[in-house]
Structure formats: structure tokens, C-alpha cells
Specification:
This protein is an alpha+beta fold. It is 38% helix and 22% strand. The chain contains 17 helices and 18 strands. Helix 2 links the parallel strand 1 and strand 2. The protein is globular, with a radius of gyration of 23 Å. It starts with 11 loop residues before the first helix and ends in a 5-residue tail after the last helix.
């Protein structure tokens, strides 16, 4: 049995040292959902696993998706039945393993004049989707008349809509899901470290035997491993080039942009998946006090770290939203946040971005570097299973001691609610407790949907600090709101490898996009506490502030390169 390895920020150097002092079975390069899934699968089979991520966990595609665990209904039109079957069935698996972060919600699919699907095609497509996904009879789709559709979602365009399908999809927080998978992998003994960059490969007898890794302070670690997996997402080809010139298939990057508006400006009752005039389809999804709209799908060949949101990206999504919800008259001033992410798809000559397959593929180089690219957030677990199966067969010589895949029924770190208690009841219970303790009830309830069972320990810490004359690192008493966020940040430092405020406010909580007012109210208090807990000097504090300011500005307004 391997020892639990908490994702504590202060343990990052120790973990890198430990990786460099023995040969691992597997080294994973990339801390997005794909790499996290592979680390978890391998660790549960008894393998010794290390994972390194150049920036923060989920800092690339895995924090910038549409934040859905869905089967990809539109891929039915492309004839990708196998892909739809696999990922649609995986929805229920991921939900069962993490009900606090993967939440079933009704999705409305309007049928419109001249749209992608007519009423008959919509009905058949949803019927097929339900059956490919193995949806229980009581949860299968229903078809609505025009009158029923408009009663269900009054903001729909009345002269365009002729009916609708109502079916179930799952909403998530992609970055939080990634971190929960990593925490579960760490509980199984995996050594996972962020801000550690693989800069070169190590070889033995012409075969890859590990990687040289630099941490954020420039310290070097030679990490030897029997197998190395490149799960670097949009950076996968760059990692492949470290092993030699690209051969065979290569990545085709496309950019997806989302915009966020106040829920009061687009007060949808349900998530809506709707046609836009150019033949594509777009989501509009309520989340808390906001609604977000996306996504675009355009070819991309610019800088990978922070793909820019252009003014024409925003205009496209505003036109799309106003086309389906014309009474709202959304304009650029209504956009309170935006994000942009890259899809690492497999290039196919002559195909437009939206026509490229989302299926994952695995490449193995002559030296033994295993690269996985493509795929969808929903299918991360099955992707990981296939990769680890390959590793066991080809690189670990089919060892008898390696257990089969065990992740299908493995609850993630925050699961395990008492007696199967629904998460909604748990959240309400936390809110009542918080109110009785004088804390912010709404923030307390959100903890349940973010951390699952760990929310209780965060709330208890918040109660202690609210009553204290001062919090370590913070001058004077704190407000009820500050108490909750400080306790949450402390949990992030000790359990989720938070090293700066952007890690916390962008990726661990999404507040930069969905609660900008909270960021403005609390960021200086949080920075003071973080500096005290991590012993940051003035230069490090200034760098932390600059990074948050850069992320804040990037989320607030279009910028053309």
C-alpha cells in the first residue's frame, strides 16, 4: 500500500527530491485532466508514479472548457457513434464518483426554422443519445411543442423556435475536477508537483529513461522512469520535439472563447444548446449569479500560454446570444468576464475546425515516448485506462503484480457523503451551520459543491478565524466573507498546492470569472495571509500581485495581439 501524498505547497521540493532518488514506473508530463487521470489510474494499479506540470495544475485547456461533462450530441451528426457511446456512458461514471463536482442539469435544445436539426431529427438524435448513454427510462429526453418550449424558457426567440428537446447533461468545474483527480491520485501514492518543467529527456541505450526537471527556483532534478507519458495538451508537440523531429500525426490547435454576463442580463431557467446563423451550435449556461456563453471554434497558431480573446470573438458570441435571445439586447458592456482555451486536436487535411474529430489518439516514438492527444474532458478516465494498459503491455512487460484498472468505481477525494446524503442537502446543512456561526451562508454552501466532504473542515477553520482577534498573516479581525475565503485558501495551500493567488482565484475557485466582486473585496487580505503562510519576500509578493493583475485584466477585456 502506497503512502498518501498530500498536495501541500511546502512539500513540492521534497516530492521532486523523492522522485529523483529512485526509478519510477511512470513519469507523467502534464497536469491537466488527461495527465491527472493517467496518474490516478496508474497509482491505483500499484505503480510508482510521478507527475510534473510546467505551470499550475489545469492551467491550460483543463480550466478553459465549456465546463460540461457531456456526450457530444453534435458528434452524432458526424457519425462518431463510438465516441458518443463512450463519453455519454462515462457521464454517469464521473457523476457517481464525484457527485459534488459533476451535477446533472436539464439542457434545452431548441428546434428552429432552418436549424441544424428539425423536429424529427432532434427526436431521433436524442432517442439515440439516450440509448447510447444508457440513460434510465425516467431520465430520458422529452420533446416539447413550441408553446411548451417557450413556457420552459421564455427568453427564446418566438418567431424562430418551433419546439425543443429537453434532456440531461452534467455541469462541472473543469479545473476543480482536475484537482480532485490529482488529490485522489496523491492519496494513492502518486507524487504530483506543479511549477516543475521537464526540459530534456534522459536516455539509456537509445530509449527514453526519464526527464530532467527544473522547479520554479531553477533547481534541477534528474527523474528516472521506466515509462514516460507526454500528456501536455496543446504543448504535446513541443514536448515531442524534445525527443526529436515530429514524425507522423501532429496537433491541430483550435481556440474556444467563452463570455460571462450577469444572470440578471441573461436570466435563463435552463442551460440552452442552440443554433447560430453560421451553422454552428453554442451553449448558454447559468452558473450562480452569472450566465456564460460559448464557444467559438477557430484555427489557432499563436502563443500557447495565454491565447488572447479578441474583440471579434466577443462580438461573435454576443451576436449568437442576441440571435436566440433577442429581447436581452446584450452588448459589450454586459460582458463581465471571458476566457480562452485551446483544443489539442489531431490534424486532418482539408477539415474545418468544427469538423475535426475529438477522439483521442496515442503516439509512441522510436525512443519510447508515449504521447496522448485529442479527447474530451468527459472521457478522461477511459483515455487514462487505455494509456496505462498500453504502458503495462509495452514498457512494464506485462508484470503480474500490476492490478487491472480500478477507477470506474473509485470515489474522488471529496466524495463519501454520509448514508448517501444528496449533495444539495449537505450544502443546505452547511449554509445553516454557517449562518448560525455568523459566517457567509452563500459562500459556505458553495464549499459543498467545490470540495465535497472537505467543506466541513474548511468551514470549521473559518469559524475559528472569525472568532479570533487576528488570523496568522493578517492584521486584525476578519469579516465573515474573509473568514471563509481565508479558510478556503489555507486548505488550498495545505491540500491543493496553491502557490499564488491566481492558482486560488482563477483555477481552484473560478472567482475571477464568476465572482469578480469577491475578488476585489478580498484579494489584498488573501495576499497578506498567503505571504505569511509561505514566507514570501517582498519580490515574491509583488510577483504574485502582478500575476493576479494580469489574469484579472485578461478576463476583463478583449485584447488583440
Amino acid at each position: 500500500m502506497q503512502h498518501r501524498r498530500p498536495l501541500a505547497t511546502q512539500l513540492r521540493h521534497r516530492y521532486l527530491q523523492e522522485m529523483s532518488q529512485r526509478e519510477l514506473d511512470l513519469l507523467v508530463i502534464g497536469g491537466g485532466i488527461t495527465g491527472a487521470g493517467i496518474a490516478l489510474d496508474a497509482a491505483t494499479r500499484g505503480l510508482t508514479v510521478g507527475l510534473v506540470e510546467r505551470r499550475d495544475f489545469a492551467s491550460g485547456t483543463s480550466s478553459r472548457s465549456t465546463k460540461l461533462i457531456h456526450g457530444g450530441l453534435r458528434y452524432l451528426k458526424q457519425g462518431q457513434l463510438g465516441l458518443v457511446r463512450e463519453v455519454a456512458r462515462e457521464r454517469s461514471v464521473v457523476h457517481r464518483n464525484a457527485p459534488y463536482i459533476v451535477i446533472p442539469e436539464k439542457m434545452l435544445l431548441p428546434v428552429v426554422h432552418g436549424g441544424t436539426y428539425g423536429r424529427l431529427a432532434t427526436s431521433f438524435g436524442l432517442w439515440l443519445y439516450d440509448r447510447l448513454a444508457g440513460v434510465a427510462e425516467g431520465e430520458r429526453h422529452v420533446m416539447l411543442t413550441k408553446e411548451q418550449a417557450l413556457a420552459t424558457e421564455p427568453l427564446l426567440r418566438r418567431d424562430l423556435v418551433t419546439g425543443a428537446g429537453l434532456y440531461t447533461e452534467y455541469r462541472t468545474d473543469d479545473a476543480r475536477l482536475t484537482v480532485e483527480v490529482l488529490k485522489t491520485a496523491a492519496a494513492q501514492g502518486a507524487l504530483c508537483v506543479n511549477y516543475a518543467s521537464a526540459t530534456a529527456f534522459l536516455y539509456q541505450y537509445g530509449r527514453i529513461a526519464g526527464a530532467r526537471v527544473l522547479d520554479e527556483r531553477g533547481r534541477c532534478y534528474d527523474i528516472r522512469s521506466r515509462a514516460v507519458v507526454n500528456a501536455a495538451g496543446p504543448w504535446a508537440d513541443a514536448v515531442r520535439r524534445m525527443d526529436g523531429p515530429l514524425r507522423g500525426k501532429r496537433l491541430h490547435l483550435t481556440k474556444g472563447v467563452h463570455i460571462v454576463v450577469s444572470r440578471s442580463r441573461l436570466p435563463l431557467r435552463h442551460a440552452v444548446y442552440f443554433d447560430v446563423p453560421d451553422g454552428r451550435m453554442v451553449f448558454a449556461i447559468p452558473r450562480g449569479n452569472c450566465t456564460y456563453v460559448g464557444t467559438t471554434d477557430t484555427d489557432y497558431d499563436g502563443p500557447l500560454d495565454d491565447p488572447p480573446v479578441r474583440a471579434d470573438d466577443v462580438d461573435y458570441l454576443l451576436r449568437a446570444a442576441n440571435h436566440m435571445f433577442p429581447g436581452q439586447h446584450l452588448g459589450a458592456s454586459d460582458v463581465i468576464a471571458r476566457w480562452s482555451g485551446l483544443r489539442p486536436l489531431i490534424h486532418e487535411d482539408g477539415k474545418a475546425p468544427s469538423a475535426l474529430s475529438r477522439r483521442d489518439e496515442v503516439f509512441v516514438s522510436e525512443t519510447g515516448l508515449v504521447t496522448i492527444a485529442g479527447g474530451k474532458l468527459t472521457g478522461y478516465r477511459k483515455m487514462a485506462e487505455r494509456v496505462v494498459n498500453l504502458l503495462v503491455r509495452r514498457f512494464l512487460e506485462g508484470e503480474a503484480g500490476v492490478r487491472p484498472c480500478a477507477t470506474e468505481r473509485l470515489p474522488l477525494a471529496g466524495a463519501g457523503f454520509p448514508c448517501g446524503q444528496p449533495v444539495a442537502e449537505w450544502a443546505e446543512q452547511l449554509a445553516r451551520t454557517a449562518e448560525a456561526w455568523g459566517l457567509d451562508a452563500a459562500q459556505a454552501a458553495s464549499l459543498a459543491w467545490r470540495y465535497g466532504m472537505a467543506a466541513k473542515q474548511i468551514l470549521e477553520q473559518a469559524r475559528e478565524w472569525l472568532a479570533a482577534p487576528r488570523v496568522p498573516g493578517v492584521c486584525g479581525p476578519v469579516s465573515p466573507l474573509e473568514a471563509v475565503l481565508l479558510a478556503e485558501l489555507h486548505y488550498g495551500v495545505t491540500e491543493e498546492m496553491v502557490t499564488n493567488l491566481s492558482d486560488f482565484l482563477v483555477r481552484r475557485t473560478g472567482r475571477v470569472w464568476f465572482e469578480p466582486d469577491v475578488v476585489e473585496q478580498t484579494s489584498e487580505c488573501l495576499l497578506a495571509a498567503l505571504a505569511g503562510w509561505l514566507n514570501l519576500d517582498e519580490a515574491a509578493v509583488a510577483a504574485c500581485r502582478r500575476q493576479l493583475e494580469a489574469d484579472w485584466l485578461a478576463s476583463r477585456g478583449p485584447r488583440d495581439p
